[in-house]
């Protein structure tokens, strides 16, 4: 799915060569990593990690594109399962009670037929043996493209974008927010802040990939 090579016996979805080629981070085993630092002063998180780094031409970018726009849900489940195992083995999942995918705008989800974050979350859930709830957070208005705007404009764009529809279901919990890509961090920031406003929770975040410029 990443390089169009034929798979051999024992391989599924992504060939061994590509799996080895994907640039992985060690964020899961490093507290205060550069992804966590990207959120300092913006929202309160316990831990942050991303499976890979996202930049032009990277294998992970191809895979995420297939996952989001070509209906290849199994890429999300497979990489989520792979990363969920890594997160569990490293102790990153310790204390986490529930996995919460970042919601898509309802209209976009209807159009696409699924939310790619749900696919990733279900893979992580299977590996980490933790429940997923996709009914905790709702997304209200459609955000435009965030990459052209300055930081304040991006924040304005996502402020109030999420509401917590089931605050009673998360009180006292440590939640793991899951998204496909962290590009500017604005979406995650808005989601984390909405969760904190709704109740007494701890929040950690993971994504399949984080933009390189965010984590330098
Ligand atoms: Zn390949």
Task: Please write out the topology.
Layout: H1 16-21, H2 34-39, E1 48-54, H3 59-69, H4 73-89, E2 98-101, H5 106-112, H6 116-128, E3 137-139, H7 151-158, E4 162-164, E5 174-182, H8 186-198, E6 202-211
Parallel strand pairs: 1-6, 2-5, 5-6
Antiparallel strand pairs: 3-4
Helix pairs in contact: 3-4, 4-6
The chain binds zinc ion (ZN).
Zinc ion is lined by residues 2-3, 5, 15, 17-18.
What does this structure look like?
The chain has 216 residues and is α/β, with parallel strands linked by helices. The protein has one domain (24-214): Rossmann fold. 38% of the residues lie in helices and 17% in strands. The strands form two sheets. Strands 1-6-5-2 form a four-stranded parallel beta sheet, with helices on both faces. A two-stranded antiparallel sheet has the order 3-4. α8 links the parallel β5 and β6 (202-211). α3 crosses α4 (73-89). It is globular. The chain starts with 15 loop residues before the first helix and ends in a 5-residue tail after the last strand. The relative contact order is 0.19. The structure holds zinc ion. Residues 2-3, 5, 15, 17-18 line the site of zinc ion (ZN).
Describe, in short, the structure shown:
The protein is α/β, with parallel strands linked by helices and 216 residues long.
Give the overall pLDDT as a whole number: 91
Task: Count the beta strands.
Answer: 6
Helix coverage percent of residues? 25-40%
Low-confidence stretches: none
CATH level 1 name: Alpha Beta
Using only C-alpha atoms, the radius of gyration works out to 16 Å
CATH topology: Rossmann fold
Topology order in helix (H) and strand (E) letters: HHEHHEHHEHEEHE
The chain-level structural class is: alpha/beta
Q: Would you identify the CATH architecture?
A: 3-Layer(aba) Sandwich
Number of helices: 8
């Amino acid at each position: 799915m990443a390089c169009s090579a034929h798979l051999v016996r024992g391989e599924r979805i992504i060939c061994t060569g590509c799996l080895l080629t994907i640039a992985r981070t060690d964020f899961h085993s490093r507290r205060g990593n550069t992804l966590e630092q990207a959120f300092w002063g913006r929202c309160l998180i316990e831990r942050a990690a991303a499976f890979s780094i996202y930049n032009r031409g990277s294998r992970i970018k191809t895979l995420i594109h297939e996952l989001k726009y070509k209906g290849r849900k199994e890429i999300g489940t497979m990489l989520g399962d792979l990363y969920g195992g890594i997160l569990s083995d490293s102790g990153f999942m310790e204390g986490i009670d529930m996995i919460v995918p970042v919601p898509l705008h309802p209209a976009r989800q209807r159009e696409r037929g699924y939310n790619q974050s749900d696919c990733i979350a279900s893979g992580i859930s299977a590996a980490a043996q933790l429940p997923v709830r996709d009914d905790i957070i709702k997304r209200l208005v459609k955000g435009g493209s965030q990459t052209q705007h300055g930081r304040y404009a991006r924040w304005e764009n996502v402020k109030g974008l999420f509401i917590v529809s089931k605050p009673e279901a998360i009180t006292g919990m440590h939640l793991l927010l899951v998204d496909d890509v962290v590009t500017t961090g604005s979406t995650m920031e808005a989601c984390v802040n909405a969760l904190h406003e709704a109740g007494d929770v701890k929040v950690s975040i993971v994504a399949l990939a984080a933009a390189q410029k965010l984590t330098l």
